[in-house]
Amino acid sequence: MDLTETSPPQLHPAMYQKSEPAECLLCPHNCQLKEGQWGICRTRVNQGGVIQTSAWDNLCSICIDPIEKKPLYHFLPGSRTLSIAIAGCNMRCLNCQNCSISQHPPHELPSYRLSAKDVIKMAVMHKVKNISFTYSEPTVFYEYMLETAKLAHKRGLKTILVSNGYINPEPLEELIPHIDAANIDLKSFDPEMHLKLTGARLEPVLHTLKALKEAGIWLEITHLIVPGYSDNMEVFRKMCRWLVNNGMVYTPLHISRFFPKHKLEETEPTPRRTMEEAYMTAYQCGIQRIYLGNMQSDLLENQSNKTHSKGTE
Ligand code: SF4
Ligand code: SF4
C-alpha cells in the first residue's frame, strides 16, 4: 500500500446539497458556495453549480488501534479496530491535536488510494472485527464513511464513529443505522466558549448526542479540559446535569487533560487538581462512569479496577 500524491483534487458527487444558490446541507455551517469556492471543511467545492467532494478513496491515515484508544471503554473491550481517516474538519479547534491532517484539504496531503471495498478486505485480512471513522472529522468524508459502513455491516463487522458531532439531523439519521458505537466530543457547555474554541455552535452537538442515544447507539463522550476555555467548574457542572437529565447517567464520560498544541502552544497543561475537581463534580452530579484521560491519578486507578464490560444500562 503506497502513499500517492492526489493533487489536483479528484471530485465525487456530494450528498446533502441544494442548488441556486449552491448550499451544502451536510453540517450546520450550511456553506453557501460560489462557483469554485470551497467549504469551511476544505473538502467540498461548488463546480458548475453542483457541490462535489474531494474526500473519496483517499485516506490520509489507516492504522490498527486498541478500541480503548478511541476512547471506547465499554464497547467490545480488548478488541482491535481498523481506524481510517480522510483529511479535513468542519471545526477549527484552537487546541487541535490532529491539525496536520484536520486543517488541510485531502488533495494537499499524500494519501492511500483505497476504496471502501479495499478497507473491508483489509479488516478481514487482519482479522479486525470493527472499523473506526476517526482522527480527522468523519462528517467531512460522509459519503465514503456511509459506503464503508454499509459494506462493513454486510460483512458482519461493527462500525465506530469518533466525531465532533457537528452534523445536520438528516444526514445523521441516514448514517445511524450503519453505526454501532460512537465517541462524541463535547468541547464546552458554554455556547460562546464553544464557538470561540472550535468555530462551531454548541446546540447541534447536543442534538447529535441526544439522537445517538435515542437511537440506541452505544455512546461515550469526551470532554477536554482546556485551561481558560473549558475549565469553568460551574459550566462543567451544568454540562453534567444536562447529561443526567438527558438519560446519559451511564454514558461513559472521558474527562481529558489538555497538553499544549496548535494555536494553544503557550497554554499550560490542565492542572491535575482541575482534573480531579472535574471528576468529583461529575461524580456529585450522578454520572456513573467517569474516566480521566491523558494522566495518571488515584481516581483513574480506582476506575481501572472496574470491569470495562460491554455497555449495559
Ligand atoms: S460539510 Fe463542509 S461544505 Fe458542507 S456545510 Fe459543513 S463545512 Fe460547509
Ligand atoms: S474537531 Fe477534532 S479534528 Fe476537528 S479541529 Fe477540533 S480537535 Fe481537530
Summarize the structure.
It contains nine helices and 16 strands. By secondary structure, the chain is of the alpha/beta class.
Descriptive tags:
313 residues; alpha/beta; TIM Barrel; 3-stranded antiparallel sheet; 9 helices; 28% helix; disordered C terminus
Secondary-structure blueprint:
Blueprint: E1 3-4, E2 12-13, E3 17-18, E4 23-24, E5 44-47, E6 50-53, E7 58-59, E8 61-66, E9 80-85, H1 99-102, E10 111-113, H2 116-125, E11 130-133, H3 142-154, E12 158-163, H4 169-175, E13 181-185, H5 191-198, H6 203-214, E14 218-225, H7 233-245, E15 253-257, H8 272-285, E16 290-293, H9 298-304
Parallel strand pairs: 9-11, 11-12, 12-13, 13-14, 14-15, 15-16
Antiparallel strand pairs: 1-10, 2-6, 3-4, 5-6, 7-10, 8-9
Helix pairs in contact: 2-3, 7-8
Describe this entry's structure for a reader.
- The strands form four sheets. An eight-stranded mixed beta sheet has the order 8-9-11-12-13-14-15-16.
- The protein has a domain at 186-307: TIM Barrel (Alpha-Beta Barrel).
- β14, α7 and β15 (253-257) form a beta-alpha-beta unit.
- It is built from nine helices and 16 strands.
- The longest helix is centred in the last third of the chain and has 14 residues, at 272-285.
- The model is unreliable at 304-313 (pLDDT under 50).
- α7 (233-245) runs parallel beside α8 (272-285).
- The protein has helices spanning 99-102, 116-125, 142-154, 169-175, 191-198, 203-214, 233-245, 272-285, 298-304; strands spanning 3-4, 12-13, 17-18, 23-24, 44-47, 50-53, 58-59, 61-66, 80-85, 111-113, 130-133, 158-163, 181-185, 218-225, 253-257, 290-293.
- It starts with a strand and ends in a 9-residue tail after the last helix.
- It is 28% helix and 21% strand.
- With 313 residues, it is an alpha/beta fold.
- The structure holds iron/sulfur cluster (SF4) (2 copies).
